[in-house]
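explain this.
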Amino acid sequence: MKKYYRLSELEKAFAISIDDAHYLNSETDVSFCVFCPTSDVILGGYRQGKFVGFGCASYSGLISLDKAQQTELFENKKVNLKGSVILQKDKISRYTPDYPFTVKVPNPVIIEWLSAPYDDIPFQQLPYIFMPEQRKSMSKQIIKTFYELGAKNEESLSTLPEKFDPRKPLVDELFKSSKTFKFDDICITSSELEKAKAYLFKTPEHDATLNMRPIDILLTNIIAQFPILKPSQIWEKLKSDITNDPRSFDTDEIIDEIGEDTMYWYDSRAELQQMKKKSFYNLIKKLKIN
């Protein structure tokens, strides 16, 4: 099985029609993504809703969509994105931690720049924004022109935007960039495809996986392969596996990191979750019973 499929491939390969895909989007928790062609991006993360930059790169691969964005794409056949989450870290190229602009941080687009070496970025799935555009504000340029053509009096200054003085030269600013994705760009990962098949072609085997999280499915497969292992041994096996490239057990890279007492893993929405070791042990015991 491939790592992902485009919607156009599903009919022939799995008898899943476009109408089926619409149903899955509107009535189930199956998550779709899109393929992003080669684009310049800023990798980073968010702190209190503000973007923090790690470095610049090129990327060509899958990116995630939240449920509202998926619905917009299915209904309107297009969606406009200023950023998203990279789902295939191995598709990142030409990474540099250098800040590429003369506009200083913090600014309205990037609140902080960390200049993080690539090897120090621990996440498998990375938030990003498309490369911002550095230029002078078009609206301020228009206002400045009207001011210079007009009376240039204090009364006209009082009606202008705060912190903008048309008497001074305009300076460069950063502006967010965006890309439009179309219906043909929709893809589905192999793990989400299994969920889709479970919803559409219910069998006793598929029914058992409908309410399972990605981590549950991963652990169930490991338990089936190593039924006599204790929870602590499975913990250590997974901890060792995440250092492999490619991974032997967690082939979809669901697990992001395993510390002394906490495991960090991605759910079906590509959102980072955590599980304490005690909860992990209890989950293994529950899955073995089921």
